[in-house]
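From the pipeline queue, job 12 of 40. The input is one protein chain; the requested action is below.

Action: predict structure.
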Amino acid sequence: MMPVKKIEIIVDELQLPTLLNLLDQAGVSGYTVIKDATGKGDRGVRGGGDLTRVFANSYVLTACPEDKLDLIVETIRPILKQRGGVCLVSEAQWIIH
């Protein structure tokens, strides 16, 4: 196993293309996206049931070596600051197969 940093990001679905582009620019080689993430936060209850998708959220999961973490965080920080969202970083183990 290899130690990595797990990065979990929740953003408005309308911001998803911008976020994924920023992750690509930061050298992220892969990620998983789960659309229509629902929950409750500082903006109240958010769900993806409306036709306009204005209140829909997406969940993005990726992992990176510790030495790439600062670059990724600083690359995505402006979109989180401008548009809101959540970014969590935690320790994880990558199973090499």
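Job complete. The helical segments are 16-25, 66-83.
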